[in-house]
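Mods, move this if it's the wrong board.
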Amino acid sequence: MSENRDGIINWMNEQNKNWAEQHFANMPMNGVWAGGLGFVMMKKSDSQISLVCAIDDPIVRTNLAGLQVLLYDLGYSYEDLDASWSDPPQSEEEMREFERVTEQLVINSWKCECGYPMMEIDVSDCFARYIETEEVLLDSGDTEEVEIWTYPLICTCGRRLDVNPDDFIRMHGQAKMHTHDTPDGDVIQAYTRYEICNCTDEEREKLFVVGDYWPDESNKLPPWMRGLVCGIADGDEEE
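Not the wrong board. Structure tokens:
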């Protein structure tokens, strides 16, 4: 979303309007959105968007007022009677805490169609799966090939939920994202610099650097694993 130097969003900008129309249409019922603008919204129904919480700040209120006009233009009603307002953060620590709380609100709102929280779905055997490679048009006019990957979560109801890598890492963190299964049933795990330095000589001899594939071209690795130092994970350490 584009904004001016004062942090004010021009919601009626064509690019922003198109983004908002698609974003709110794709939000699930009771889904929560926190766009890093100092407020959190919830989709209560196909035609109603509600404010959950916000920072009591002039810029935040201005952006909310502009968003409210856009929502009406898109056919949504806007409700903020039950919203909670908090004082502006007075330190970086307070701002980080607000962002942490709003982030958790978003994650907790992600549910399967059956209502089961996605965060509680077992991911012990869930690893990234390659979908396809797409050509993406850049602002410069050039094109770039981008690999599309997903994390297939299997809900307790049996439904498969495809989660993009960005959302997966928000739920389960770097450690889980930096593991990948192999055709022979092993799990490779990337090591941090600290972990490498603290390995014994015997453990370090078992480490290896992975490329686009491992152990061979039958097993494509996701981009965020390539070039990392890895080892075979013990069964008790895959989490």
